[in-house]
TrEMBL record:
Protein name: Bifunctional D-altronate/D-mannonate dehydratase
Signal sequence segment: none
Pfam families per record: MR_MLE_C (PF13378), MR_MLE_N (PF02746)
Lineage: Bacteria, Bacillati, Actinomycetota, Actinomycetes, Propionibacteriales
Domain of life of the source: Bacteria
Organism per entry: Propioniciclava flava
Length: 404
């Protein structure tokens, strides 16, 4: 007889930062885990799962993964959006985890098996000024990393997102309200070529350099930036203008040959359909959790494959080690994978979510544990209750709100 879902639990905890974790237990005693974290909107996803979707799962056959996805997406009037899709994503991940544990196989085997021996990741180097950034780049190189994202401070600004003095920085600040910072696109655009000149001089031609503009520029500014950094041969320029204006990317595309990456804020294939089909980008960054789980991410990456676009999923500290595991398993089994972001986690996060995946010498491995290979240390989670925390809000120098 088919197994059935018996218990659905949502755990919200803050081991250094907030994570929403879904735990699905079957009548046969198999436990599947999913990540449902949406940075700064954690409790909304927790309620969506606890109050609306979790109860529907009770009694369902956990092996009907695709049908469950369709039921929760197509069968519901209100669809899409980060809260809905992260909730569906967590359920989907948990069901793949259960299937793997039942089959005694790691998820990457269920997805068709390995297409590569190891998964390259990129890490974050940052420094307030150029010498500090170069020190940070050297440290990453000493760890054997060859794909490095570089971010620096901007003269005249007192804070810049993605740049911190703490080596294990956390994008969201604890507190009841987001902090605010000012951004000057002109100063940033003038400074970036200087930063990249120094970094390229240090690392030589072989290191893959990446840079994230965090959606701060208008389309024409984005086009100009992409053109002005062409000579530094970036591996990619990320989020160069707000992601929902898909047509804006044509302007950037036509202006330069700098490879473009976007999509960590996308939640469905329809958010990036034009970008992919019209080849306006080179890398699609949808995180497995925020795009409705493995089942839907596979479709995004399959559409991308047909159009010469590669996967380069989001992997900051706010994607938990469970969703990162899902990404690593997919990377092992997906041919058109460019690179996986791996920002790393503070020690407490590794302890709260013991995992079979590993990162060393610039490469990730999924490990051979059945399912996704991630566990929970409930005592750590119980000792770390939810704390409100938000990403900062940015304003231009005249005080108007700037895009995220
Ligand atoms: C960044 C993140 O990792 C990235 O590329 O853009 O810091 C991102 O802003 C946060 O994860 C948002 O939650
Ligand atoms: Mg980013």
């Amino acid at each position: 007889m088919a197994d059935r879902i018996e218990r659905v639990e949502v755990l919200v905890a803050s081991p250094t930062r907030n994570y929403v974790t879904l735990r699905v237990t079957t009548a046969d005693g198999i436990v599947g885990l999913g990540d449902a974290t949406v940075n700064g909107r954690e409790l909304a996803v927790a309620s969506y799962l606890r109050d609306h979707v979790g109860p529907l799962l009770i009694g369902m056959d956990p092996s009907r993964i695709e049908d469950t996805w369709q039921y929760l997406y197509r069968g519901v009037y209100w669809r899409r959006g980060p809260v809905t899709m992260a909730a569906i994503g967590a359920i989907d991940m948990a069901l793949w985890d259960i299937l793997g544990k039942r089959a005694q196989m790691p998820v990457y085997q269920l997805l068709g098996g390995r297409v590569r021996d190891a998964i390259p990741y990129y890490s974050h180097a940052f420094g307030w000024d150029i010498p500090a950034l170069l020190d940070s780049v050297r440290e990453h190189q000493e760890r054997g990393e060859t794909y490095i994202r570089v971010q620096s401070g901007v003269p005249g600004l007192d804070k810049v997102y993605g740049v911190s003095k703490d080596p294990n920085y956390e994008p969201a600040g604890r507190g009841a309200r987001p902090s605010e910072e000012h951004f000057d696109p002109g100063a940033y655009m003038r400074h970036l070529p200087k930063v990249l000149t120094a970094v390229r001089e240090l690392v030589g031609p072989d290191v893959k350099l990446l840079h994230d503009a965090h959606h701060r520029l208008t389309p024409i500014q984005a086009a100009r930036l992409a053109k002005s950094v062409e000579e530094f041969d970036l591996f990619w320029l990320e989020d160069v203008t707000p992601a929902e204006d898909q047509e804006a990317f044509r302007l950037v595309r036509n202006a330069s040959t700098t490879p473009l990456a976007v999509g960590e804020v996308f939640n469905t294939i329809w958010d990036c359909q034009r970008l992919i089909e019209e080849r306006l980008i080179d890398y699609i960054r949808t995180a497995i959790v925020h795009v409705g789980g493995i089942s839907h991410a596979r479709k995004v990456f399959a559409l991308a494959e047909v159009h010469g676009v590669k996967a380069g999923p989001h992997g900051p500290s706010d994607v938990s080690p469970i969703a990162l595991a899902a990404s690593i398993h997919m990377a092992a089994a997906t041919h058109n994978w460019g690179v996986q972001e791996y920002m790393g986690y503070p020690a407490q996060v590794h302890e709260a979510f013991p995992h079979a995946w590993s990162a060393a010498d610039g490469m990730l491995q999924p490990g051979d544990a059945p399912g996704l290979g991630v566990d929970l240390d409930e005592s750590i989670l119980a000792a770390s209750p939810y704390v409100p925390a938000y990403l900062p809000t940015a304003r231009t120098l005249d005080g108007a709100v700037l895009d995220w």
